[in-house]
Structure prediction request, 90 residues.
Amino acid sequence: VALLAKGKTEGLPFRESKLTRLLQDSLGANCLTTLVAALNPSEGCCEENAATLLFAKRAREVQVDARVNLAQEALPGSEAYSREIARLTS
Prediction:
């Protein structure tokens, strides 16, 4: 996430963790992602909360240029689009 926040997108090394594997496609691909950082209010979790907030801050700085992927034949008004709508509504 730190490299993505710096704008580097090529050859990203992903750590072997469940969270990183879950976010790999979301952060490195053509999509919009929402991240919720959950914190524990107990005093014993200060370090974990700080690490979570640092991760959330880095993730917030990631800029992706997400675009809608549409095939020309699937555009509204095309024959293929009309056929698919007819098929789904019948």
